[in-house]
Amino acid sequence: MLQMPYRRLAALLTVLLATACSRPDGASTDAPPAPQRHFLSIGTAPPGGAFFVVGGALAEVATANGGDYGWQVTAEATKGSRENIRRLAQGDLDFALSNAAITYFAVRGEGGWDRAYPMRSVMNLAPNVALFIARRGAGIESLADLRGKRVVIGPAGAGFEMFVAPILEAHGLSYADLTPLNNTQAGAVDMLADGSADAAFLGGAVPTASIVQAAASMGLTFVPYADEARQRLIARYPFFRPFTIPAGTYRGLERDFAGLVTGAMHLITSEAADEELVYRFTKAIYEHRDQVVERHPAGKAIQPANVVADRGTPFHPGAVRYYREIGIWPEDAAGDDGGEAPADG
Q1: CATH number of domain containing 291
Q2: How far apart are CA 126 and CA 130, in angstroms?
Q3: What percentage of residues in the chain have a pLDDT greater than 70?
Q4: What pTM was estimated for this model as a whole?
Q5: Range of the domain at 312
Q6: Are residues 216 and 169 in the same domain?
Q7: Across residues 310-332, what is the average pLDDT?
Q8: Residue 46 and residue 80: Cα distance in Å, rounded?
Q9: Separation between Cα atoms, residue 169 and residue 181, nearest integer Å
């Protein structure tokens, strides 16, 4: 006698469940699952330089244009390129900004790195145009005059020495010939202002915020590179390139400055990063590069000839796939194995 009610109850429950999962028109209400939310991080650098601002711009643009991938991207302040590379290798970051010169040595295990780090380029961004500036009256009119002076060369552990050392060497100097000091770019400006430093090596996308600040608050000498030394650096390393800073870019810069690209700012990731993720991330940034420009002028460098240029670091297969898809990856370049693009002209 108990079996009939039980069966009827079971049948009733089945009908109710079927009704709940259907619409009056008979179509199923089963909706596709909501896109999985990915929390991604971009390593940048300390405040005061371009990396910090550009990294924030990339994070905002990627978050706004994640589409059905549904990611939330956060820019993290770090000590800079060297820390970013180590944290990418450890899986603590998903993407990072780095100086191409520092990445160049990292992927080769040279220039003070303890081993080769499997980094891959995603896209080249703005050139990192760096130079020595000095307090006017400090007796520094050339790089040779840095001998015996107190010079700020980036935050401790950031890796600036990897491209500063070759510059000094090309001018007949070494670290032993000066008193290197470590600080952020903003901190370097403070040290110049209070007289605790004689000169500083500053740079980033032009105009660089720290140099703008320094020029607005004190008289500066923009220390020139010796032309012959500059040409030797350009010939020897793929990350050094000529760059002219126009007169008037900074207060007190009265004539064009024959500058030097000391490694472009580029977006990198680990070799082990998921190909589909890198593909979609590259696509989101490249196709909305105008939104990056709205946040920082460095976005103007996200152009076909620049993003795929060879800076000495292999490209990630996910980025290569996207660049091939839109027709800007040269066919004679190495392909999905993450090979390098040819040098830009």
Answers
A1: 3.40.190.10
A2: 12
A3: 85
A4: 0.73
A5: 38-125+265-325
A6: yes
A7: 93
A8: 7
A9: 18
Tokens of 110: 């040279």
Please count the other Cβ atoms lying within 10 Å of the Cβ belonging to residue 37. Answer: 10
Residue-wise pLDDT for 260-290, tens only, equals 998 889 999 999 999 999 999 999 999 999 9
Whether 51 is in a domain gets the answer yes
Backbone angles phi, psi at 338, to 5 degrees: 85, 20
Contact (Cβ atoms closer than 8 angstroms) between residue 18 and residue 38: no
Angle at 284 between CA 278 and CA 285, to 5 degrees: 90
Using the 8-state DSSP alphabet, how is residue 57 labeled?
Answer: H
342: Cβ contacts below 8 Å, ≥ 6 apart: 310, 330, 332, 333
Higher pLDDT, 298 or 190: 190
Indicate whether 246 and 300 sit together in one domain: no
How many domains does the chain fold into? 2
Position 338 scores a pLDDT of: 34
H helices present in the chain, as ranges: 3-20, 50-64, 81-90, 100-108, 161-170, 185-194, 209-217, 227-236, 275-287, 289-295, 304-307, 317-325
Do the Cβ atoms of 73 and 67 come closer than 8 Å?
Answer: no
Query: Which H or E run contains 1?
Result: none
Confirm whether 46 is domain-assigned: yes
Are residues 236 and 275 part of one domain? no
Picking from 208, 228, 262, the residue at the C-terminal end of a domain is: 262
Same domain as 242, residue 162: yes
Higher pLDDT, 16 or 142: 142
> Same structural domain for residues 121 and 269?
yes
pLDDT at 332: 63
Residue 6 in this model has a pLDDT that exceeds 80: no
Q: Is there a contact between 181 and 151 (Cβ–Cβ < 8 Å)?
A: yes
Taking only the tens place, the pLDDT of each residue in 85-108 is 999 999 999 999 999 999 999 999
The answer to whether 267 and 62 are in contact (CB under 8 A) is: no
